[in-house]
Amino acid sequence: MPGIDKNSGPSAVQTAEQIGLQRYADRSLTEQIRTGMAQAIAEGRLPAGSRVPSCRDLAVALGVARGTVRAAYDMLVDSQLLVARGAAGTWVSAVLPAAHAIPQKGPVLAPLADVVHAFDVVPMTFQMGAPASDAFPAKVWSRILARHVREIAGGATGYADPRGSLALRQELVSYLSLARGIRCQASQVIITNGYTGALGIICLALGLHGSRAWSEDPGYLLARRALNLAGIEAIPVPVDEQGISVADGIRLADDARVALITPGQQSPLGVTLSLARRGELLAWARRQDSWIIEDDYLGELQLQGRAAPALAALDAERVLHIGTFSKTLSPALRMGYLVVPDALAGHFAETVALLAPASSSVLHNAVAEFLHEGHYMRHLRRMKRLYAARLSELLQALEPHFTQLSRAALAVIIPLPQGTRDVQIAKAALAYGLAPSPLSVWYQDKTAYCGLVLGVTNLPEGGFAESAARLKALVEEFG
Ligand SMILES: Cc1ncc(COP(=O)(O)O)c(C=O)c1O
After folding, report:
1. Do the domain assignments include residue 441?
2. Which residue among 14, 29, 130, 471 has its CA within the 20 to 30 Å range from the CA of 308?
3. Do residue 389 and residue 355 come from a single domain?
4. pLDDT given at position 15
5. Are residues 178 and 325 in the same domain?
6. pLDDT above 60: residue 6
7. Taken in order 220, 224, 230, 233, is the CA torsion positive or negative?
8. Average pLDDT for residues 176-188, to the nearest whole number?
9. How far, in Å, from the CA of 130 to the mean position of ligand 1?
10. 295 C-beta closer than 6 A to ligand 1
């Protein structure tokens, strides 16, 4: 190949050593690979014109997903340090760009790199929180979406309602009444950028900075972190087989201004908040004039029996209800909704209008039609059937290897003896395309419980058997 030295450069293992990846550092793995290679090129450790390892080989050597390495290679190709030659492989540029040095300023770092292994990648086996990639109703959705894109292209150019499209808010009023037992009006509904967007709006509108909040223990790590970032002290409140322990909440922080909970299917244990606890929680909120934020992230996606009604169905005055399309349709839509008590509707409307308006209504209107035409309910029914089948398939695959297994909403928990290095197991599993979540990180006290939480939504080609055996081998290795 003209201009290219046939020297194949350092091996994948040597290259991996030069990059020196640090897991759970505050820079993403992709960014670490990119800067590590750029530095190795600048310092001549990866010689100009030499071939670099394939994405697959380097990924195995580093113990990361192939897509992580590919993303770093793409950036290095963009900055002309590498040249991609298709089947002939990837090479260090024969003629390096003039600066021939590490760029002084790297690109903006990926957020949450210590807990989210990568954004913009296809979900891995066992990954929590991502719906089935192979079951998205792509055909009907693209037909509907295309129509709404055409409509907006030729339509009015005025400002849209900052609470989101009225069509979708009205559809949600009907849907929530039927599926979640919530009685509300469209004026109480705000379309948000998912659950996360709704939580941000609530912190802003209720002026929660400087206050205390109950947060479930174990609980959704990102929610706890979000509260702390918003200047709210997250008080961990234990969860038992009935859901959050209200008595403990009162003992630990009676003066909390909010309780942030997942009553439908607790995250990650999957328990439904009992009726008695619902009563205690609402009584506390009324007595203290506090708010309950209901994270209904799995909404109707209850695999066993009928989904319990939402907490907001019991008390529309004290509960702020959040739903998301991230679990039912796709996280790529980045869409959810917030239902606020009637008395707060005006204040929330003003808050979003001035500080956090809803995104473009094109997607809202397409989702509204998807609901209106009955596709959404049909899709949910299909997903429940599919996930129930995948859950039993996963249990069958795990049973020969693990004696104790518990179901937890759309996941299976494998409890492991205290002291097992579950974080290490989860990290090592990434190299095999598996993304179990270590149970310990969901707890405030990271040494209290160990285990692996396995999402059931995405089935690997050929079934779960091989992945289950691989997990067993990893547990033995790090046990
Ligand atoms: C407990 C919990 N709540 C909410 C969400 C959804 O967040 P979003 O709508 O921002 O995607 C998730 C996603 O994993 C979750 O685990």
Report:
1. yes
2. 130
3. no
4. 80
5. yes
6. no
7. positive
8. 97
9. 9
10. yes
Domain boundary among 359, 385, 407: 359
DSSP assignment, residue 462?
Answer: T
215 C-alpha to ligand 1 centroid (Å): 15
Local structure of residue 155 (DSSP, 8 states): S
State the chain's mean pLDDT as an integer: 92
| 227 shares its domain with 348 | yes
Match 């069509």 to its residue by tokens.
167
User: Of the residues 332, 359, 386, which one is the last residue of a structural domain?
Assistant: 359
- pLDDT, tens digit, 9 for 90 and up, residues 129-156: 899 989 999 999 999 999 999 988 887 7
Q: Mind giving me the DSSP string for 187-222? A: GGEEEESHHHHHHHHHHHHTT-TT-EEEEEES--HH
Q: The CATH number of the domain where 222 resides is what? A: 3.40.640.10
- Beta-ladder partners of 437: 453
Backbone angles phi, psi at 450, to 5 degrees: -125, 155
Least confident of 65-69, 102-106, 294-298: 102-106
Atom of ligand 1 nearest to the CA of 130: 14
pLDDT at 136: 92
Is the shortest distance between the CB of 28 and ligand 1 below 6 Å?
no
* 324 C-beta closer than 6 A to ligand 1: yes
Q: In this predicted model, what pLDDT tens digit does every residue of 341-371 receive, in sequence order? A: 999 999 999 999 999 999 999 999 999 999 9
125 lies in a domain?
no
- Residue minimizing CA distance to atom 13 of ligand 1: 129
User: In this structure, is residue 186 part of a structural domain?
Assistant: yes
Number of H helices, E strands in the chain: 15, 15
What's the total number of domains in the chain? 3
Paired tokens of 265: 């299917």
Ligand 1 pocket check for 331: Cβ under 6 Å: yes
Q: Give yes or no: residues 333 and 209 share one domain.
A: yes
**Of 90-99, 132-141, 191-200, 327-336, which gets the smallest average pLDDT?**
90-99
Provide the domain limits for residue 291.
161-359
